[in-house]
Design a protein that fits this description.
10 helices; 197 residues; 68% helix; transcription regulation; Tetracycline Repressor, domain 2; Transcriptional regulator; mainly alpha
């Protein structure tokens, strides 16, 4: 029988909190059960296993991050929107490192659960919307979306791993990276003839 008050959402949130504290790779069903004060078997009434739990954490994180980015970019355009978007992305990665990691790891997510989750789809829509002011047409717009996501993810991942040991503050480099991204987006190179779309 399921323990009173224990739900899939509560198990997911507990797993997410644990991931932020100890790292996603150290989250186990046993660790989540201990945190909740239940036996391991009680969790399986609500989640199918560790892979399912990680998928649920990824969807939770995608929703949270997307809400923050949407709030930060509302009513902004161009460089102002780009900086707000990027700063929100980075702030979320700093505040929730385990959850952020979950969004970057391929997991087997229950298709029905994934279909109900707005976060991942909304994240893509927000990125395209944020870049609208740069007036890029396809396939350049998709290439620009991939560049922005790769740049932001690469920076925050290297930063989290301690990859910026240089004396120059990471904050200063972050600001310059965003300046450079903005400059590139404003002067996007013409597509090569015959480029596959």
């Amino acid at each position: 029988m399921a323990r009173a008050g224990l739900t899939a959402d509560r198990v997911t949130l507990t797993g997410a909190e644990l991931a932020d504290e100890v790292g996603l790779e150290h989250v186990t069903m046993s660790a989540v059960a201990r945190r909740l004060g239940v036996k391991d078997a009680s969790l399986y009434v609500h989640v199918r296993g560790l892979e399912d739990l990680r998928g649920r954490i990824a969807l939770l994180a995608a929703d949270e991050k997307t809400i923050r980015i949407a709030e930060a970019t509302a009513g902004r355009a161009g460089k102002d929107a780009l900086v707000a978007f990027a700063d929100s992305w980075r702030a979320y990665a700093h505040a929730h490192p385990g959850r952020y990691t979950a969004t970057q790891i391929p997991t087997q997510i229950d298709p029905e659960l994934a279909a109900r989750a707005a976060g991942p789809r909304r994240a893509v829509e927000l990125t395209y919307s944020m870049l609208r002011a740069y007036e890029l047409a396809e396939p350049d717009l998709t290439d620009a979306v991939r560049l922005v996501r790769s740049t932001l993810h690469g920076f925050v991942s290297l930063e989290a791993a301690g990859g910026f040991a240089h004396a120059r503050p990471a904050e200063a480099s972050w600001a310059r990276c965003l300046d450079a991204l903005h400059a590139l987006l404003e002067r996007w190179p013409a597509s090569r003839e015959g480029d596959p779309s």
